[in-house]
Write a structure and sequence with these properties.
This protein has 85 residues and is an alpha+beta fold. The protein contains two helices and five strands; from the N terminus they run ββββαβα.
């Protein structure tokens, strides 16, 4: 199987579909799946959040987004990290 990546906007009570709180990607390949969130450390890191949501944890909503939209979210996170916000 070729590698397949699905991106998700992370939405909670303080964010919205137009301005999500973060972005998560699920990378699927022959070795299985791994979920990674783009962290405030400005890198992709393992995250159990989507697995938890699939098992009933409703703390966050995960909305599938395109690679382009995920890239825009990452860019926004990078820009915010460069400010005092």
């Amino acid at each position: 199987m070729a590698e397949n990546v699905t991106y998700y906007a992370i939405i909670d009570e303080f964010s919205s579909r137009d301005r999500p709180g973060g972005v998560l990607r699920r990378v699927m390949n022959d070795d299985g799946n791994i979920d990674e969130v783009f962290s405030r450390d400005l890198r992709w890191e393992f995250s159990p959040l989507l697995y938890a949501a699939e098992r009933g944890d409703t703390m966050f909503d995960f909305v599938p987004v395109s690679e382009e939209e995920a890239s825009r979210i990452v860019t926004r996170i990078r820009e915010q990290a460069g400010t005092d916000e």
